[in-house]
């Protein structure tokens, strides 16, 4: 049995990172570290403790005390807060409304980065985000930087929203939103969106999800062979 390795997948908004990361993790029986879910867990803990979302000091203290964990599961991965499963709890509307405020606290981000590294230390992990290969797991043996044109990413978001019955902006407006998000992510002061020098750039504009998963799987297998 080959010991699992760390796989970091980065890229701009709506590049399909999470969808692909989950499928890659399933294929290799790796843990998928859902970094977005981690901020949702902190938000849930804060709400359970009756904290106001602007009580930054208490939220930071709480984030440093709790332990977040993941386990593979069907149909979706299971998420834990101090050993208790919270997979469904973190998807409630109240969490949606408050998670951005929590994720914006620099000290909370620092603590989540620490926990992400801890989770990844044993290997056998796939993690996606915007600064995984550059900041969170700079020594990951596999780093992928997923890109697609802004138009294609807007089209995917539009189709996805329609399929879910979500009222959505026009395709042109979605493209403008995505381009604005790209600019913000690329120019922010802390951990800007940038491709790690040793990351494989993967343009998914003309690829299906399955083709992207296949490409990344080939890279993982090749790396595993080189390491063992």
Automatic annotation (TrEMBL):
UniProt keyword Kinase, yes or no: yes
Keywords, sorted A to Z: ATP-binding, Cytoplasm, Kinase, Nucleotide-binding, Transferase
Domain of life, source organism: Bacteria
Protein encoded by which gene: cmk
Name of the featured protein: Cytidylate kinase
Broad class of enzyme this protein falls into: transferase
Cellular compartments annotated: Cytoplasm
SUPFAM superfamilies, alphabetized: P-loop containing nucleoside triphosphate hydrolases
Lineage, highest ranks first: Bacteria, Bacillati, Bacillota, Bacilli, Lactobacillales
Family: Belongs to the cytidylate kinase family. Type 1 subfamily.
Span of the signal peptide: none
GO MF annotation: an example: dCMP kinase activity
UniProt-listed GO biological process terms: nucleobase-containing small molecule interconversion; pyrimidine nucleotide metabolic process
Cytidylate kinase domain ranges (all copies): 7-221
